[in-house]
Write a structure and sequence with these properties.
By secondary structure, the protein is mainly α. It contains 19 helices and two strands.
């Protein structure tokens, strides 16, 4: 591909960083930075630092990070309350969150932007409210769930009160609210919100609009988690095809859709198909070299599918390698999920002395955290894995009681059709068969 700015294919790698069709958005990152600098200096076009002038989409990947770093560096002489400096800091915070995984620095940056905009623009200015949404999300990434959810709800309400709300920003805020409910385990509330949001996007914007595609992505995940797997796979397949056509196979949003499709196939126990999708996902992410958090999650997923396909000795080193990354690479709930999967791999390999302490600690952390609690679906998954590990180790009494209690709660909370419920049921049936055999032998 040739760079559409300098018309050369020499030098650094030519990349697509936006939603332009075909090769139209392919550029050298340094050429893109030079173009944005010229636009900002000659006509004060600050959007050039963040958005493609052709398709209007936010830049993604390494280019977005380089643009944000350069923009913020060039605001060095401006006062701390300058709104342009705040916008540059906002862009840098977003890229640190997406690509550097630095949740502590991101939270501090978003808080500074929110405070500046509140002082300068007012508490209910659209830009202030947008920075509040970003701050709420950064709270979630830091495990501050109560504080983050309260700010999210308050901000959505403020947007809805506006006399002439920005429909795009309001829908994005409601999408985020639906995601909050999904993560907290309130799956049907999440699904109701996200279905309404997607319908509104299709009503107000084109089917290929980035916001519409993101809303379809969220809806596909929500239907999956609500157990509506047939609808979810249809939505996910449609979304992946749209993303590849509009954004390209390696685009970060396309990769997110690929990750979601692999999870859906896993939920349907199509482990071989899930593994194939995950391998492509991981390969593209590692080749592109950005989004370490997303790459880590995709590598975990690949290991999980390999494990469930009966190859624990192949899966365990991948999981160990993922867990060797700095903890701040992950959202707290994701890190606990990965630890539980590692515990399952260790138990499958009969390394119970390693598996059981890890699973006990993970389960306690999930029960204690604001976001999870004892009846969160991910907490129940860990409890089920621990129960099976205890039975396999020989602590049949404790393990059997934990498995049966967990199964009853899973049926009540997530339903009998959920993959994790079915997994627990299979372990309980195996236990009952073993108990019946032992009783007959006596």
């Amino acid at each position: 591909m040739q760079c559409t700015i300098c018309l050369s294919d020499e030098g650094e790698v030519v990349q697509k960083n936006c939603h332009c069709r075909g090769d139209n958005g392919a550029v050298h990152v340094d050429c893109l930075v030079d173009l944005a600098s010229h636009a900002a200096e000659t006509r004060e076009d600050w959007d050039a630092w963040e958005k493609c002038g052709t398709c209007g989409a936010l830049f993604r990947g390494h280019a977005a990070f380089k643009l944000a770093e350069t923009w913020f560096a060039r605001t060095d002489g401006l006062g701390s309350d300058d709104v342009i400096r705040a916008s540059a800091l906002m862009a840098l915070a977003r890229e640190k969150s997406w690509q550097a995984g630095d949740s502590e620095a991101t939270e501090a940056m978003y808080r500074e932007v929110w405070e500046v905009r509140t002082r300068v623009l007012g508490a209910e200015h659209s830009n202030t409210l947008w920075s509040a949404l970003c701050l709420a999300e950064s709270h979630r990434n830091r495990g501050k769930y109560v504080e983050g959810f309260a700010l999210q709800v308050e901000t959505v309400a403020a947007m809805e009160r506006a006399a002439d709300p920005n429909i795009y920003c309001l829908l994005r805020a409601r999408r985020s609210l639906g995601e909050w409910y999904r993560i907290m385990g309130e799956r049907h509330t999440s699904l109701k919100i996200l279905r309404d949001v997607f319908e509104k996007y299709e009503e107000h914007f084109s089917t290929d609009d980035p916001g519409t595609l993101d809303a379809l992505h969220d809806l596909a995940i929500a239907t999956r988690d609500a157990g509506e797997l047939e609808e979810s796979i249809a939505l996910s397949t449609d979304l992946l095809a749209r993303r590849k056509r509009v954004q390209g196979a390696w685009h970060p949003s396309t990769l997110c859709s690929m990750t979601s499709l692999s999870i859906l196939l896993y939920k349907q126990e199509k482990f071989g198909e899930a593994e194939a999708v995950a391998r492509e996902d991981v390969s593209l992410r590692e080749e592109h070299g950005s989004d370490p958090a997303g790459t880590a999650v995709s590598r975990h997923n690949l290991a999980l599918y390999i494990l469930l396909s009966g190859r624990p000795s192949e899966a365990e080193p991948i999981l160990r390698d993922v867990l060797s990354l700095p903890p701040q690479t992950f959202e707290p709930n994701v890190l606990l999920f990965v630890k539980a999967t590692h515990g399952l791999a260790l138990s499958t390999l009969k390394r119970h002395d390693e598996a059981i302490p890890l699973l006990r600690a993970t389960l306690q952390d999930q029960r204690d955290t604001e976001m999870h609690g004892s009846e969160h679906p991910l907490t129940l998954r860990t409890a089920s894995i621990l129960g099976e590990a205890l039975v396999a180790q020989g602590s049949a009494g404790e393990g059997a009681a934990l498995l049966r209690d967990t199964l009853a709660t899973q049926i009540r909370v997530v339903g009998e059709a959920d993959f994790d419920t079915r997994q627990t049921l299979a372990w309980v049936k195996k236990l009952e068969t073993s108990e019946a055999t032992a009783c007959a032998e006596r």
